[in-house]
Specification:
The complex is a heterotetramer, with two copies of chain A (509 residues) and two copies of chain C (171 residues).
Chain A (H helix, E strand, L loop, with lengths): L6 E4 L3 H13 L3 E6 L7 H5 L2 E4 L12 H11 L3 E3 L9 H9 L3 E2 L4 H8 L1 H10 L7 E4 L5 H11 L3 E9 L2 E6 L5 H16 L4 E5 L5 E9 L5 E13 L2 E7 L6 H17 L4 E9 L5 E7 L6 H8 L3 H9 L16 E8 L1 E2 L5 E2 L2 E2 L2 E3 L6 E5 L6 E2 L6 E9 L2 H14 L1 E3 L5 H8 L2 H4 L7 H5 L10 H28 L7 H13 L3
Parallel strand pairs in A: 1-2, 1-4, 2-3, 4-5
Antiparallel strand pairs in A: 6-9, 7-8, 7-9, 10-11, 10-13, 11-12, 12-15, 13-14, 15-22, 16-17, 18-21, 19-23, 20-22
Chain C lengths: L2 E7 L2 E10 L2 E6 L2 E9 L4 E6 L2 E9 L5 E6 L2 E9 H9 L11 E3 L4 E6 L6 E2 L4 E7 L2 E6 L4 E5 L7 E2 L4 E5 L1
Antiparallel strand pairs in C: 1-2, 1-8, 2-3, 3-4, 4-5, 5-6, 6-7, 7-8, 9-16, 10-12, 10-15, 11-14, 12-13, 14-16
Classes of the chains: A alpha+beta (509), C mainly beta (171).
Amino acid sequence: MTRKIKKILIANRGEIAVRVMRACRDLDIKSVAVFSECDSTAFHVRIADEAYPIGPSPSNESYLVFDNIIEAARKSGADAIHPGYGFLSENSAFAKRCEEEGLVFIGPKPDTIALLGDKLQAREAARRAGLPLVPGEDIGDVTDTQAALAKAEEIGFPVLVKAAAGGGGKGMRVVNKAEDFEEALQRASSEAKSAFGDGRVFLERYLTHPRHVEIQIMADEHGNVIYLGERECSIQRRHQKVIEESPSPIMTPELRKKMGEAAVSIARETGYLNAGTVEFMVDQDLSFYFLEVNTRLQVEHPVTEMVTGLDLVKGQVYVAEGKELPYGQSDVKLRGHAIECRIYAEDPDSGFMPSTGTLSNYRQPAGPGVRVDAGVTIGSQIPIYYDPMVAKMVVWGSTREEAIGRCKRALEEYRIAGVKTTIGFHQTVLNNERFVAGDISTRFLEEEYPDNKYIVLDDETRRAAAMAVALDKFANERRITLGRRENQIPEQSRWVNVHRRLNLKRMGG
Amino acid sequence: MTRKIKKILIANRGEIAVRVMRACRDLDIKSVAVFSECDSTAFHVRIADEAYPIGPSPSNESYLVFDNIIEAARKSGADAIHPGYGFLSENSAFAKRCEEEGLVFIGPKPDTIALLGDKLQAREAARRAGLPLVPGEDIGDVTDTQAALAKAEEIGFPVLVKAAAGGGGKGMRVVNKAEDFEEALQRASSEAKSAFGDGRVFLERYLTHPRHVEIQIMADEHGNVIYLGERECSIQRRHQKVIEESPSPIMTPELRKKMGEAAVSIARETGYLNAGTVEFMVDQDLSFYFLEVNTRLQVEHPVTEMVTGLDLVKGQVYVAEGKELPYGQSDVKLRGHAIECRIYAEDPDSGFMPSTGTLSNYRQPAGPGVRVDAGVTIGSQIPIYYDPMVAKMVVWGSTREEAIGRCKRALEEYRIAGVKTTIGFHQTVLNNERFVAGDISTRFLEEEYPDNKYIVLDDETRRAAAMAVALDKFANERRITLGRRENQIPEQSRWVNVHRRLNLKRMGG
Amino acid sequence: MPQHYLVTIDEQEFDIEVEFVGEGYRVTVNGNEHLVRRFDMESVHSLMLVDHMSYEAFVRGNGEQGQRSVFMLGREIDAHIEDYNLAQLKKAAGMSGPGAVDTTVKAPMPGLVIDIKVSPGDTVSKGQALCIVEAMKMENVIKAPADGTVKAVPAKTGSSVEKGDVLIDIE
Amino acid sequence: MPQHYLVTIDEQEFDIEVEFVGEGYRVTVNGNEHLVRRFDMESVHSLMLVDHMSYEAFVRGNGEQGQRSVFMLGREIDAHIEDYNLAQLKKAAGMSGPGAVDTTVKAPMPGLVIDIKVSPGDTVSKGQALCIVEAMKMENVIKAPADGTVKAVPAKTGSSVEKGDVLIDIE
């Protein structure tokens, strides 16, 4: 049974809201923005067809409040809700609420979200679907530390303690030896309890140089499940991806087929619907292990779009309309190489400390092979309430080498003033020999930059910057001196003034 | 014999200078800008590694002066010159001068440029290469109008009078009947004489509904000549292309092969080197006729780049280095569909009258499938001296339908304030049913918009614009009233003020 | 206090009343009421939420009194605004409204006059070519805005003109 | 009249003299002379042609006297500028230059203090975690900028802080 979606409310903000709205416009579907108090002039509000306020700035008073979002959907007459990523995107209760309200939730069914959101249940589903798992054990009761330690020793150190309900590195600990185990277990559990309200943890063997490789899947109501290649996401800081690419430098057609089919298996096992991502760890011998399923659109979906030529958000809408996917497995062909750099308002050299402020300048790179999905524009404020990602810069090249070249060019072209950003960090990584050789793992950053110092300026840049500072001061001092004389001239454009000043200088002024 | 190019001077300005510089940066080659007086802060100067002044604003005192450009090349230590399009790009004397100065001219050999720049000689070369020609005749001596009329009658009216040295519609006349022939002949010849210093003309049968379809070619020093698909460029105003796409909606694989091989034949016949374009007219029965060869990079080259995945400017540099093309004919695979809209600073409803000024706002569209090659940024001035094109907006979609949808979205996202532009014109054409159906010819615009009125506003937009004007006036009047009260508050960011004002309003202010 | 304006776009008239209310502005357009929230952004740039419909608009004066350019949805829209009551008075008095034709033909951009096709005393009809101005390497034909008689021709062939210079005077 | 500055970036010192000359500025950096043309663009934004090398640079003060942020080539570079002679006098007098450590630990962004790991009287070493501030859904560890002894702890667990608020005082 198909239904026509005419208006979609996007229950999100920032670049992903803008991304979904662009797909809506491409499809001639109306888009509805929601915004908190500090987001009233945010870029996603400006791009939308309609916009509704949903409460104060903190997300638990706005973007996370079911009622406010449902009310905005009612008022606007939206017939579907796209949750983006983060916020309510993996909240099965919200998906269920949408169902009850007669709104199409663009994502999997609530039960699937609930099942795969529980790491232990997801692990079980993966086992049933025949996916390889990292050797590991469930620990029901964290009070019996002796039994837990026995299990850890059975797996063998180093061992990873992970929260069952976890995500984003919270409630996670690497334990290198038995003596440290008990404390790590308790801390992981209490962290998980405070972060997710669920203190259950489990143990996994800790792979020392794993890659994070994930498979994009797409499933419709008609039983079609396909995979759309992989993404290599090994460059991580604080267990968060910062650079992603497709294809993975280590991928072979055989491995892609094996991993792709494994991803399709767990999707079938769980009755998966819509877009999703099956995450794997890949060891140095190219054996791979199931990690988890993300039941939503990923931040890094554009790299897949650029190599497959398919629009994943459009695909999500088609599937949500009950239609059959317009392409089958054999239509998925990869072309070239794509790399994404997440541009965060953070200071890389201060442990990626968030940086807030107003973007007094913002100019995106452009030209061949460059796609920027941004949530900001010139004048935008970076508020303290939300994730500090301002944009994703994605480049495509016919080869990985070309993509890296274009990526470096585009990073140099980026102009952001007002906040510190991760652009310099990306420039450093893209020039790193190991990265260029594709020799990476999730431990890449800690191995290559043990002192967390990423920004290295060459002499020429440093000297030019010093000159810029001196000239700025000189010009300001001179402006004060010249002030009285300049007042005689009626107001003109700044440009005319520049040329006039230059002419004065030419005349020996 | 290969040579390594380390530094390229780009003898051009605007978007094409920026485009070539981006390719240089991708290749780790240094780029050198040249600039006239009014271009000292132009975008291409800001993107370049180095920049040299070459004279006053009029192009015949700067961008067209051989000596000034050669001197800048000398000073900068550039080893090659890329001419872009326009200016010196098809000037064989300049190409020769570069050769003499030991600089690599990135383009064909001087003799090839000279030969193909003469329409009569080019026609002869095409005939030798076995290309189909529009029935037509050379008229040596325009003083013998009786002989010329006899030739015109032999061809059959309507007949087209064309300047041998022509381009851009100058020295061109359509003659529908014998009575009008003599005057048209004289006017075309005198126009050609004053524009090109060469009054020779020739006659061609005038096709009533032809398409303009051109083939991109690339040739190296090792005898490899390949074609990279076609571009449909039938949407023209004043004989200038404004919307181009690839592939052509009427193309079949068989026709592409035939036209592509014809293009390769004339390239081989003329010893062609580097990138070039062979232009054809295609009649309604899909028969095609040779038009001319453009011995340079075309404005519309990005649509070819987007469907082939190949970087043509990089290809030009490889070939100029004496290397073999890194891809053969069988590697050229077309994927999806690309459309380019040329954004001119012109008023479409006043006969595309150029519009000058300063860009008080400039925000480019972005997101999936959108590439913008711009020669401007916020604050840029559009000077009166040069071509008024400010940017090329190019979109890619997996189908023509998807490309059109994205194109309309991207045009709506464009924000340019300060000059009139052709954005509204493009929006109109992209919504035209005949355009959507691919039913176009070079007469499309005159047939569909006989009164030259392109901008049609819908009621909703008109009403919203009226409200914007009223609210702007209201707010300005109020600001004057509130002025004194606001002065009490110390300077804060404009954003804070907005929120404060809004709160005032909420409190009944 | 509500303000009352007459806005004209493409000869279509909008009778608009604006007043502050608690959450924004109440804007009544030809009798239909809208609630509008409006946010200033950079200089002339604003975001309007018209009954929740989102519009980015840039409004600026374009030289003459009451004339405005609105940049919206990628387009530039020409508009004219006037105090409503004043406009009614003018109409009653038979004075020219914003739709009336400006019979002074001005240079639309800086350039070089390369041809003048009329002389004082000539009768011209709307759309007829009056002169040719070259700018940006292109010849731009300047046409008569209305039927009339050429009164004066200040422009000279071969001379440079600035934007706004009077080329031809028609009456 | 030439001006003489001392600019410090990453502890590297640049002795810079600037003066107007016919075509732009003569800038002497650690004895090497450069000809620089400089164009103001928008507000803090400028284009420099340094011996023809093209740089777009944005310079702005970042709060404290002499501190500057330079936005260039996609990066933000921290710099300090001082009158050259004044800087030499200070050095001679043994006063702290720009490289000296600020022993007042301030909140680098607005946020919520969720943990304080030191008390007055504690000895701390450079890089040691002092407290944790949550902002943008992330916990940010604030570390000691140098070895020293905690003098005072104005920050309180559970309280909000604004950017620049003093968290910990070290001596």
